[in-house]
## 1
Amino acid sequence: MTDRIVEKVATQTDESRNQGRRAFLKGGAAVAGGVLFTKAASAAEGKTYNPTKAVAPYAGKEELTDVLQDGAARKSLGFGVRKYPYGMPSPYEKEVQRRTLEWLTPDAMASITMSPLQSLHGIITPNGLHFERFHGGVPTINPEEHRLVIHGLVERPLIFTMDDLKRFPSVSRIHFVECPANGAMEWKGVQLNSVQWTHGMMSCAEYTGVRLSDLLKEAGIKPEGKWILPEGADASGMSRSLPIDIAMDDCFVAYAQNGEALRREQGYPIRLVVPGCEANMWVKYLRRLYVHDVPMQHREETSKYTELMPDGTAQRFSWYMEANSVITYPSPDFKMQGPGKYYIRGLAWSGRGKVAHVDVSVDGGKNWKEAHFTSPVLDKAWTRFELEWEWDGKEAFLMSRVTDETGYVQPPMPQMRKLEGTNNVYHRTAMVTWRVHDWDGGKNGGMIENVQY
Amino acid sequence: MFSTKQTIIAAALALSSATVFAMSGSPDSNKEVVAKKDGLYASNYVEIIKNADGKYLDAKVIEAILGKDATHGRAGLKGKLDPANPYSFEVDDSIDGGNHGNSQCKVPAAFVEVHDSVNKNYYSDADFVANGFGTPIAESALEKWNITVDGDGKGLPDPSVGMTVEEGAKVYVQFCAMCHGEFGEGAKGYLPLAVDQNLVASDFRDPAPMKTVGNYWPYAVTFFDYIRRTMPYWTPNAPFIGDKGYMGITAYIMQSNYIPVGFDEDGEPIELDYDTFYNSELLMKQNRYMKNQGNFFCDHRPVVHNERCMNNCPDSQVGNGKGDVHDYVQARKLPDGTLQYNVPQRLHEDPPGVGHAGM
């Protein structure tokens, strides 16, 4: 029985993948020679698939009366239960996908995909759309053979099976997880017209697992143990030094994400959750917690994931993600539909706690109005904001600015660039600007463009 | 460049003053807290932060604790490198046992919420009762997994393990050169290992500098750690390379980056010869002479402490930073007017806009 389910899921996954591939080829994008997206824009009309525009086209029918007829959905039976033992989104949502920019990385095993933030609602990222970042590909680990070890400067080195971990008291929390390189491509200027590209190296999910403090105390840390080295069981053997003050704060070892086991892409069978901190500290395929007296100074905390400043110095051990926000609607994937009322919506988050305020400006930062929250306001989690806006059809510059509970106010880009230069790569957490083109009787097509000051 | 000692001297020149702090709008705003400044910073910072509802990054709170001058930008950074500063991620040199100065960072004292939580979960948790889950294991059983090396070289192989630089070059060419280039110049989008480029940016429009082992790897010993644990990419920690081979590869890359093993009487660098037998002792020597080592400092963010302005905001916060909202940059366009995405980067005309080739 299990075999049949697995087979069905596999078939279904293949179907979905082929669907994507067919649609992709239909879009006329030239993939040869690694040059993606050339001419794709010209094929954007109608219902053809455009890899640069990731919003599903709902408004297909010109004549509303057409859809008032009883169609196939009403006049015939739909499919039965268990057609899909593991359910998948409607085929009409096929363009809502994780995407990557091929020129970012030399191969797919050390690469990244971005979540389609422009198509997401609420504060939870579905598991299939959770962003991916691999340093050595995704292993398929048998949980029966996986172990977590706590050793080093501990009283009792311990080895845990996955069943052992699930016997501990559990904790479920909603947190965002953000790659510190989120928005990295925009340091030197604007170049990508989608929230998916500018902010998609992040997701937000409900994680369930065991408090790291419970596990560490179970093994008993010796007084000289001040740093923890989590290490992954994958080819990259991801490792970062975690100070005991972060480890004992609110970290946990997660085995579930949004109610089901972690996906392989997110660390199946277990990963570390380090709320509010850089996603590369959330070590996936976690196999070892090595307690040590000094930080390890490993590659991913020295030569990578450190921020190069204009004077040649570099900032290291940058743990917490700054408060950040972005308007997801209207945003460059959408088109304005004429002057009138809009509800500006977006996401705000902070690695240092709860979001306190989100303000929205439509005039490039001169004047601001406070938005209200349409989701729960949680610690180190996405928060949804919304603000009513009456668009007069004139050119507008949309920006959002978050203030978190620590009193930190998100800065504009020119200020951040002046302080940190443009070769930083990581932590580009300043505001972005969406330029809404003058409606001009519809001549500009309602275009919304990513611009940068 | 930013040694802690310099910082303390610089900071000692600053004047200290007492500030009265009351947070408007907070429940305790009627209760005024006087900043006690016996040294450079308010010693009662916890009280000030708690009185302000924990808003430790509020511009006014920072000002009350650090004084007006220490709050902004790169100038404020020098003060932040002083471990006595409640906002500093730096730790005091004196507690570092390593061989390269200040090598640790910490969660700043001003993050009172984190420290309260850690105190509750760990330092003051007298009630903890072990569940007894998991199985005890001997440290010796973990030899296979525990192959990490730390920044002080703990975990390196015995000095008898190694090979000459020339032999190391052969191992490198066999297992690494197809992706990183015969001379470490990089290939096929994989990272270069030995391009010595200046990291100081004079103009943000210049291509991003290439970060390599030579100019951007502060600890030689963890280069060995990294390649032994994760390379070759397709089959990490390869027994057919072994500690000996990994030591040889390290030797070749260190030599390609002209990392000295010491300095002679005239102060000239002593470089590795091709027939030098390279081992963990030489690696430890080189660990002191990595080129960019002194330029890494602990996280000093946020350097921005803006006020939350709602109407007629100052020009510095509007548009291009000078009040002009029409002075913006757009993505480049193709001749037909459609937007283009990183065309020069895709064609490899210049290095990718993310700062280095590949991630």
## 2
Amino acid sequence: MPEDTIIKSEAAAKAANMVDYAATYDSFRWEDARREIDGLPGGHLNIAYEAIERHVAAGHGAQVALRWIAKSGERTDYTYLELSQLTNRFANVLRSHGIEKGARVYSLLGRTPDLYIAALGTLKAGCVFCPLFSAFGPEPIRARMEIGGANVLITTARLYKRKVSALRDLLPDLRHVFLSDGMAEGTDQLSPLMEAASPEFTAEPMHPEDTALLHFTSGTTGKPKGVVHVHDAVVAHHMTGRLALDLRPGNTYWCTADPGWVTGTSYGIIAPLSNRVTMIIDEAEFDVARWYDILDRESVNVWYTAPTAIRMLMKAGVEATKGHDFSSLRFMASVGEPLNPEAVIWGNDVFGMPFHDNWWQTETGGIMIANFAAMDVRPGSMGKPLPGIRAGIVEVTEDGLCEVTKPLAIGELALRPGWPSMMRGYLHENARYEKCFRDGWYLTGDLAMRDSDGYFWFVGRSNDLIKSAGHLIGPFEVESALMEHEAVAEVAVIGVPDETAGERVKAFVGLKPGYAPTEELMLELSGHARKRLGPAVAPKEIAFRKNLPKTRSGKIMRRLLRARELGLPEGDISTLESDEQ
Amino acid sequence: MTETNIDAALAEELHRIAPDIALDDIDRTQDLREEFDIDSMDFLTLVTALGKRFDLDMPEADYPKMQSYDALLAYLRSKMA
């Protein structure tokens, strides 16, 4: 056993939802997990019904479902009954505008109640919900709305004017834009429509395989991929919320993720509500003092956050926690990128419990590998597979795939498909979807190893994707935006290590003849990229090069730029034809 | 350093991070991050740059005092007074 293992006390283990990991894993059957949700007659179901209606029907309508903390600090509570009626009204607004089952409803909103009402109301109406991150610029928004064929958008007047109005002509499928505040030409105001709508609506009975959610994720090359998830995913959301996050009915739970990313939907809307907790939603961005205030004042029991935030809390020091009472806190988890061992241990020192790192992806829809409440934590490890999930380390060669069972051997992390929240496809991109599978395994694109006790350890990525502040960024999307600028001849985008965010987006730019690499041009390119992509995706650093390293076929070698940036061995450069200058 | 200089220096550092946003187009009393469309990482970069430029200690505990352009300007002035 590694020296720094954090041992769970017997009492703590006994109190957990899953007392005995090994026994639960061995006896687990998905049909048993399916019994934990109510479903609808005829083998149908609806995520929104499981999240809200069944709790109201069981007499929990008066429990607070959502406590919203505005930027100003003002709190607004929504009970399960109120959430039921508001989402019914929203579903009726969709219907009264001719939006039928299967239509694609997008949101571009900050963390305000409208976002949560729109998400659940959309699902109730049997429409497909696609949340967009509000810090996206017009280009990522356009690409995602176009690929998904967005029919409806819910946004604010400010975001609409800044980022969407100029795109309207490019989006022929977009039939309605509802504004949660303010007014703009070609849009409808949502609040009068909500007031006029009936608070009665019967959740649409959906086939388990009907599409419910569309989440976009970045690819190494080409356009972003629209990941399709179905209503049956709620079975996995509910089960993993209970076992990996240790959620219990009546708990106060705070998931700090934005619903623009998959964590903020699976574990910021669906899993917590289906497990009947009270969710804390904070509209504001990260702030040390504010976050400690929320944990303390709201008596948060379970907290699900991300490495970037944890590292910023660490930086602020233990002093910042002084005067706060965290005695309600029972379980802390982290996701987004591997959590460094120091941060796991820091949690244990400061809060008296470790951060429980877990691993999953947009494609898997739910937590796949986790550190559990009753299981000893090996800091730096992502933990063990959830019950119902078979994970392996594999090696893919031209001859096929072979599973590597030798402890600590590095290979690609792979999963046996078949759990309910697994993606059902990349929208309109079957070839890319098929490429994810080999010999009955789903290939995750992450490199990992497994120790002799079955704990999994993240090693690296097998592709060029960048993970900044927990968000996956495709270099191609950033490069394409920069290439649009008249001064740019060639560009390569890589992730460079960043103390807080994990990685930071850096662009290497080669200029066309007649352009000089000035500070002024650098700022112009930066502004151009920010306008197109938004701050979450645009490069934080731009460097000029006379020439970028390329292969004989003219492909820019991002890998080589990255190795040089990091001072790592350059590896095999036999294909290098034209070197960096 | 005169007040005008502080103002100019702040504008310059913000321009380095968000060159696409003109100072004239923003509401100086509103949320700085929203007005300049900057994220948490950009905000940290800004604070670090200002701290270095003015040789100031700008601890995280003071971030709530830097929520808008005007608030940040007032904060810088008070620190250098």
## 3
Amino acid sequence: MTKPAFAAAVLATTTILSGTAAHADLNLYCSAQEEWCQIMAKSFEEATGIDVAMTRKSSGETFAQVKAEASNPKGDVWWGGTGDPHLQAAEEDLTEAYVSPMREQLHPWAIAQAEASGDRTIGIYFGGLGFGYNTDMLAKAGLPAPACWEDLTKPEFKGKVQMANPNSSGTAYTTLATIVQLFGEEKGFDYMKRLHANINQYTKSGSAPIKAAGQGETLVGIVFLHDSVAQAVAGFPIATVAPCEGTGYEIGSMSIIKGARNMDEAKKFYDWALSVEAQDLALQVNAFQIMSNVGAAKSDKAPDLSAIKLIDYDFKKYGSAEERKRLLSKWDAEVSTLPQ
Amino acid sequence: MLIFWIIAGWVGFALLPWYGVDDFYSFGWLADGWPLDKDYAPAAALVAQGQKLWLAPMALALIAPLLVLRRPKSDPVFARVLIAAGAFGFAWLVAQGLGIGLRGFNAGWLDALFGPLDDRQFGMGYGALVTATAFLFLLTQGLAAHGAVNGDVFVTSAIAGVVAVVGIFVFFPIAKMLLAAFATDDGGYSVAGFFPKLFDPRIWGLGCLSGGQCGAAWNSLFLAILVGVLTTLLGLAFALVLTRSGFRYKRLLRALTVLPIITPPFVIGLAIILLFGLSGTVTTGIAATLGIEPSRWIYGLWGVLIAQLLAFTPIAFLVLIGVVEGVSPSMEEAAQTLRANRWQTFRTVSLPLMRPGLANAFLLGFIESMADFGNPLVLGGNFDVLSTEIFFAIVGAQYDQSRAAILAVVLLAFTLGAFYLQRFWLGRKSYTTVTGKGDSGVHPRMPSGLAIPVYVVVTLWSAFTLVVYGMILYGSVVQLWGVDNTITLKHYITAFRVSWGESGLRWTGSAWDSFWTTMMIATIAAPLTAAVGLITAYLLTRQKFAGKRAFEFGTMLSFAIPGTVIGVAYILAFNVPPIEITGTGLILVISFIFRNMPVGVRAGIASMSQLDKSLDESSLTLGANSWQTFRAVILPLLRPAILAALVYSFVRAMTAISAVIFLVSARYDMSTSYIIGRVENNDYGLAIAYSTALIFVMLAAVGLLQLLVGRTQIGRRTSHGEGH
């Protein structure tokens, strides 16, 4: 190929590929599971006629992207994913403050999320923390069903419990912060050390432990309850447990990206996403979180919020970068280095 | 040629929109106020209206070449004017692009020097692209006329072209990323935080010597060396069976060796878990037979090693097959005529001549293992490696970009170390055997002492590969993999349904969107990758020029860095002017070209170092120029390398994940990111069905490429009665 021919080839390439996502009327960054994201985008298009370009990525990836794009935002609204990255984005001034007229229809925990962030983010769903176990394996091993956090540290469960690494997973960090708030810092770390002795693997991703339990690769996986329920609904022999001592939770959140190019459409989506109509879509895609609109429908498979003992999770403190770094380096130094 | 680039420069400067235009090819901008509207105006029109005056000096650099158009090339003024104009124009264009951005001046010292600028500019468009290209090639014409590389315009332009694109799409984003290694939490830069993070025990700990966990750096290094050595040996074994044995089903074996390379990520890992995991078929079977407790042995070094061997042996094979075929039979025949037996011939003649292939295969295995991300994620257990640590430092709960950048530096140091070690081992010996001087004959069979172990290894490994793929195929047709084994086709139907609607055929399956995008991007990226790779290999093996080592280093760099880092670096570099291409399909194509180009380069170098220079020289003596020589003499002899580059880049574009996950957008979603989404959502059946379909598509594509490129006949390389 001659050089002009090469240049022509490059031009031909760009012919087919030029253009950006910018002519969609709304650019949605979505951090929930694929179907949920798709049904949200499609239903919003049907409800309003606004064209949606949706990108699905995990909340950590989306945060990294929003941060990288800060000086020239490409996304308009970021829907779904655990609350911490949303709070961190608010803390770093990456998202826009907005008070929706829909706010009065929401559960108090959803509004608390907005108040903690200076109105830069809001709760859209609630997910409690707990664990799930493989019922076939439990029967085969002849062990009693675990019901409490303490049960997981019993010697019978040695090498049978899996959780994610808090350094890499938001779920596992929520677990660490929950234990610290539940038992106090000293006793909490003592618990993490005893649990460490029973852990067979710290996975990288937050929901991996319950998938491993579904495939029979571990007996117990510490995860969010809705992930465990979804695994059971998918057909795996999984039972879900909300620990008896009480437990923490995540608030799945939504934020408008600062400097969004389609600010009006972003706000329209924001209001719509808080409506009963939008939140009822969750059940169609097997998402078993508890939705933030008081009027939203509940699944009978979803964990019953009233039966779960909840701690008063301090998102402001435990979501801050400083406290996070401190707890993680303490966990690194005191827990992860111990022999198993 | 000169007049072509001058015209191109003027077209870019005075006709095409200077800044990026959405939907350029709908040509709506022509009717929408062009050439005066400031969004669509060419640079000349902007300057004429008194706007963006910093673009004006480039006009001088476009006028100057017109003055020397009539002068002969040998006139020193001709060369000097072109060099000055090209260099000034290009440098000015780059400087203004980097200096002035969305918020006026990009750097504080520019504000201090000129006062704050009350204007801004967006990403460059086609006008800027064409003008920049024109400046670059005006410069190379001048340099060639001045006597650079013996006055060879083709070679000078090729060098400058490769340097420019590698500079823009490899060095620039990586530099931006590495700058982040010194970033502090509050957005400033500091060296103080760098060293404690670099010498973190989580990276360098040696706990595994005393029963604990080792640091990620040692784990990665150890794993990469194992993978490099073992993939090279396995690849060599397959290459030997294919070229130096009477094995009858060579085609089948060839197809089998390519299978793993065309398998989307995670799938091999899942199959291995179903075989060897705690509840895996093999593990429970063995545990029941021997009466031992099943264990989680697969999670850790062993699992990752097995998965990476499956995944990367084909790469070693693709590099080695070209080299093993390329060793001239004349040499081997000469050795045998001199009464060496088969074993002596193999050990003292064939094997040493394969050294470039062995070294390159090891290097690729080593680097691929270092950068691999999917397998350690699924099978790593508590065995931390650098690539996953980098990924989770960026996207995990820590959001620590500077830690990621530091880990990337460590990883880079290892891969570059391997690179220099390999060069040292190859030394300055010549491995040329294809001389064009009466080359004929047939490769001798392997000596039997070697043939038996090679056959055993090849048979066992082939059987293992078949079992793994049998599992995958099975996984795609059962209800729920590992739990409910009812046979069903529902996963294929969900993914690839088509139906007849009012407007004809409708692609209603959930996988079609990402499938067509992936096909398009892979089809565009593959030939470009092969072209850039082979031109680079040609320059590296056949031309002498200043800075060649740095040039080689630069072209290998993008390969040595894990895709995750490239992904984030691309977002950091290309989301803002002057080059603003995030969210387009173009950024995916570009990332594939520069990620996969090194394989083309390596395969090209390995093959080209076997071709004697006298071939080029005789072509040049007969009056051909270097471009004609490259096209008519070298390229046809490089068919195996071309095929390797094309196949590899096509396939990688369809199976790569780590960089892609940061670069996909709503409009350009790729198969792999879609598949990962399915896996995350417990939808294993659909993920595996999609992967299986992709495997068949890629097999067909590889076959098609093989037909298109054709085979090279070096000498009479077939003996009677034996198919090739």
## 4
Amino acid sequence: MRARGLFILVIAAAAGFGMPHLLPGYLVNIVTEALIFGLFAMSLDLMIGYTRLESFGHAAAYGLGAYASALLLLSFDIPMLIVIPMAAIITGVVAMPIAWVCTRSTGISFAMLTLAFAQLFYASVYQFKDFSGGSDGIAGIARRAGPFGIDFFQSKIGYFYLVLIILILAFLFCRSLVASPFGQVLAGIRENEVKTRTLGYNTRAYRMATVVLAYAFGGLAGALYAPLAGFASPELFFWRLSGMVLIMVIIGGRGTLVGPILGGAVFLFLEHELSALPMVRELWPLIFGSIFIAVILFAPQGLWGLFLSWRDKRRIAVVSKSQTDAPHAAS
Amino acid sequence: MDFLGFILTQCLNALSQASVLLFLACGLTLIFGIMRIINFAHGAIFMLGAYVGHTVAVLTGQFWLALIAAPLVVAGVGALFEMFLLSRLYARRDGGAYLMITFGLAIVLSEAVRLIWGAQPKGIDLPEVLTGIVFLLDQPFPVYRLFLIGLGVSASIALWQFLERTRTGLLIRAVSQNPEMVHALGTDIRIVRTGVFALGCGLAAFGGILATPLFGAYLAMGNNVVVDAFVIVIIGGMGSFLGSVIGSIMVGFVQVFGAYYFPSLALSLLYLLMLTVLIVRPGGLLGKEE
């Protein structure tokens, strides 16, 4: 079964790598942005799906990553390939005090505290205008070449490949993380924090580590976004983005990693494509809001979760059928 | 004397701002106290109240009628939402699901408002009694803002008396402490929940229509104000009625005086205030830590 999963991953990767050559040029940027949003949603899934830390301020991570990479690219002569991981690490470091404060509470207070921090960043962008460009944001972010004269990732298609490679690596890392002993403790916190603490785990430290990791990956997504758009604006911190990415995680299926990636990517792609049709553009937020409500009511495990449970049920059916068939075959 | 007059009008401005916020925050804290639900749609409900009020005022030419009709209509919408959608989630006992479904409602409501009323901001005409200006210590001050302060004070006293002195208020407080026990003692708590949700939505709608003569009804009004209401409820302690009254006044003063003395810090001040309160008292000023 593991071999089959790997096989599917290879097929998906191959399809991904072939994609920019099959698509018309204008779509490449949109698909790239969709992948970045998928990465962003996956980072939130670490908190929501695996540790039940319902963050309502994950835009903070995206905005921090985007502004960090934008400012680094504009102010210093550092190659883009180094700036992007640097921005992710900066976001993770900034997240440490945030994690310390937020993990003092759980549940709704936690959600509100994360929201407060994101809004604080949003307000700060307006406040430190000289540094952040205020409401104008930061424009003219260039994808600087190097190191060692590598300039492949500067082009539109090259940047797509960069995002795809980073997404695959981040996914593989997170998948092994949630399967590791560390991930098992997180699942323990999700299911019953008191019991996990009684077993001797310092659950607050685990929750803090999860917040920092999720912010770092969210920052990675933001750091990829800024050079793609060439632009970073205060809206990247606004609570609406936090809400949107939360919705994507839920519709995709929390606690599955794959679901949020697909949810985020498909949502962004659909939004871009449907906005081109005047009829649908008017109604799109309404339709999408209704779908969201329906998913919460009828499929709380999300669309990917629905698919997984359908597959498991079918597998059990096949196995039990072959078992009941077996005696007949013997006789 | 000039300085005194200035301080006085600024204080009154802050109080009138606090009055509008109070209706929003009281609704939010009532709903949270009873149902443990953070109603993310509260901003959209506030906006819906403003738009419905605008329509009633345009159709009948009566501001007073709009002030009564809009909260009733919006409370009805809230009751329907609670009965048909929200109530399906109670058995799941998952706080996150509430947060998300009300966020979904916020999207659907604000889009519906945009489709029905269009993107143009709407104004509302005040009756003549409320349009004038009075002079306080030689400083001009709009009558309407004084009216807001009066409404805010009387509504907080009325709500407080309702919660503390009436049988229904007793029931509401009992449900917020132990819903299972109240249910076991023979009260249908489904009705209490629907009623409280509708009451909270009605209060928000009342705030929405009160805010319309000041800033007009526009599509972003809910988004702009909902976070303020959260800040108030969190500062005061979630579920605490007195806490949200205190929180409204604090936020009103911080907004008005912050905008005057620290214009560059104005936006951040609110969140800094909230973070400070939460670091010192994680449950809010009058709340219990959960």
